[in-house]
Amino acid sequence: MNATAEFPHVLVVDDNLDAAEVLALLIETEGFTASVARNLATAREALQTHRPSIVLLDLNLPDGNGMALLSEVKADARTAGVQVVVLSGMLDDKVMTQARELGACAFLVKPFEHEQLSQVLSLAQAAS
C-alpha cells in the first residue's frame, strides 16, 4: 500500500502526543517511516494521504473509539490490506476478541517494551 516499499510507513494514532512521538521515533529505528494522528478525523485523512502499511491504533481517542476506525479500515477496499495493531492501556479479553474479529493483526497492552513493538511490526509487515 505504501509508495515507498523500501521504507514501509506506520501511522500512529494516539491522543497522547508525547507518547505517540516517542513511539514514532522507535518505529523509525526499526527501518520504517512514521507519522502521528491524534484523533480519528486526522487518522482518516492520513490513511488516504500517507497510505500506511501498518496502523498502531489506540482505542480511546477524543473524537471516538478506535474500534470504529478499525472497522472502517477493514471494510474499505482501498485500506483493507493495512495491518492494524490495537493499543490499549487495559488487558481486556472481550476487547481483544472484538479487535481480532474486526481484523486487527495484533494487540499491544501499554506500556509495552521495545522488543514487543519490534516483534509486532515484523509480524504486521510480513502479513502485509
TrEMBL record:
<dbReference type="InterPro" id="IPR011006">
    <property type="entry name" value="CheY-like_superfamily"/>
</dbReference>
<feature type="domain" description="Response regulatory">
    <location>
        <begin position="9"/>
        <end position="125"/>
    </location>
</feature>
<keyword id="KW-0597">Phosphoprotein</keyword>
<dbReference type="Pfam" id="PF00072">
    <property type="entry name" value="Response_reg"/>
</dbReference>
<dbReference type="InterPro" id="IPR050595">
    <property type="entry name" value="Bact_response_regulator"/>
</dbReference>
<feature type="modified residue" description="4-aspartylphosphate">
    <location>
        <position position="58"/>
    </location>
</feature>
<dbReference type="InterPro" id="IPR001789">
    <property type="entry name" value="Sig_transdc_resp-reg_receiver"/>
</dbReference>
<dbReference type="GO" id="GO:0000160">
    <property type="term" value="P:phosphorelay signal transduction system"/>
</dbReference>
<protein>
    <recommendedName>
        <fullName>Response regulatory domain-containing protein</fullName>
    </recommendedName>
</protein>
